[in-house]
Write the C-alpha cells for this entry.
Amino acid sequence: MLFFRLTDHYEYLKPFLEFLGYLPKSVSNLGIHNTNVDCASIIGDESILVSDTTATPLMAQDLIARIRQVSDKPIKYVLLTHYHAVRVLGASAYLAEGATEVIASKGTYDLIVERGAEDMQSEMDRFPRLFRGADSVPGLTWPTLVFGDGQPGRAGGIRVDLGGVWVDIWHPGAGHTRGDTVAWVANEKVLFSGDLVEFEAGVYT
C-alpha cells in the first residue's frame, strides 16, 4: 500500500497511481495494486472520518497504522461510498478502534439488504487476491446511520463535524451503483468520489 498526503487534513491510500504518473510500473508490480480500492481519512481537530474501509479487517490495519502515524484523534465515522464487498468488509477494524457510526446512503443500505451476502461471496470467490485475511471478516457491514430517501441531491445529505473540518455527504445519483455517495470538504476543495470517478472502468449496478 502507498499513502500520500493531499492536505493537512487528509491521508489518502491510492493503489493505482501509475496511470497518474506517480508510480513507475516496477513499483506497482510489487503488489500495491492488489488492494484494488482507494481509502481516505479526513482528520479534524476532534475526530477522524474514514472513507471506505478496505476489503478485510486485517487489511484495514494498514490504514489504521498510517493514520496513527499522523493523528491520535479517535476514528469516529466510517463512510461507505457504495456497496461492493471489496470496499466495505474491513469496517469492523474501525469499530474496534471506537468508531461509532457507519454512514451509508439509502441506496447502499438497500443493496446490502437485497444482495449483500451474495455480493460478498461472489467477490471473494472471483478475486481472492483482493481479500487478504478473508477469515478476519465477521460478516456483512451494516450501516448505523442511513441518510436520504434514495433520491439524488444534496438536500437529502448530512453534514459531519470533525472539529474544525466539516464534511458534506450526499448521494448525487446512480452512476457506479444505485447508492453512490460523495464526501465534500469545502474548505479544502477536496471531493471524495468513491468509484464514481474511476480509471478505465465500466458501469456497475
